[in-house]
TrEMBL record:
Family label: Belongs to the resistance-nodulation-cell division (RND) (TC 2.A.6) family. MmpL subfamily.
Chain ranges of the SSD domain: 1-104
Name of the protein described by the UniProt record: SSD domain-containing protein
Transmembrane regions listed in the UniProt entry: 12-31, 43-69, 75-106
Membrane topology term: Multi-pass membrane protein
Amino acid sequence: MWVSNQVPLYSFVFLVALGIDYNIILISRFLEERRRHPVKKAVTIAVENTGGVISSAGIILAATFAVLMTQPIQILFVFGFIVAMGILLDTFIIRGVLMPALIVLIEKDKKGQTESRAE
């Protein structure tokens, strides 16, 4: 089975460009909640409030690209499959699990930092 060497490049560009939107939604909500809550609580609220929007948008977008799999052209089938599966992985694994975990791991509570310095 021969596939054009441009398919991985185009797939990568599409997945990165489409995944950025979900990051913006999640992180902007987290920053809003971060003003009032500690990190873990802010992440929980952000994921709860944006989960439905991100999930539904991801499913619709994946279904849109999956339509390319119905075409008889092999390159379109492969491109549609890669992008549809990538969007689903991005929607449910990256935005639902990995991003919240990374935020909690990297972001520090401002109270915790000042208390540890005082001791």
